[in-house]
């Protein structure tokens, strides 16, 4: 019974994360301002990271957790670089 509840909850979480990724993709493609697009990209990578974590929990492989860690690190750096570019017009001073 517990394994079945875990499987259903993981499936529901993956579906909802996929829908959240679609909403974030719409935001960063049709965002009216640059700030909206940066927030859309930020939301997209966080949802992708969480999707990899749920897939890793379901499959039991550590590869998905490592991929989620890399996505988190690269997404954070990309968000900081984009925010710095919007604020100052350049990334490297």
Automatic annotation (TrEMBL):
Keywords: Antiport, Cell membrane, Ion transport, Membrane, Transmembrane, Transmembrane helix, Transport
Entry keyword Transport: yes
Topology relative to the membrane: Multi-pass membrane protein
GO terms for MF: sodium:proton antiporter activity
GO cellular component terms, A-Z: plasma membrane
Cellular location(s): Cell membrane
Residue ranges crossing the lipid bilayer per the database entry: 6-26, 38-57, 63-87
Main subcellular localisation: membrane
Keyword Nucleotidyltransferase belongs to the record: no
Domain of life the protein comes from: Bacteria
Matches recorded under NCBIfam families: PRK06161.1
UniProt xrefs under PANTHER family: NA(+)/H(+) ANTIPORTER SUBUNIT F1 (PTHR34702), NA(+)_H(+) ANTIPORTER SUBUNIT F (PTHR34702:SF1)
Family: Belongs to the CPA3 antiporters (TC 2.A.63) subunit F family.
Protein name as it appears in the record: K+/H+ antiporter subunit F
Higher taxonomy: Bacteria, Pseudomonadati, Pseudomonadota, Alphaproteobacteria, Hyphomicrobiales
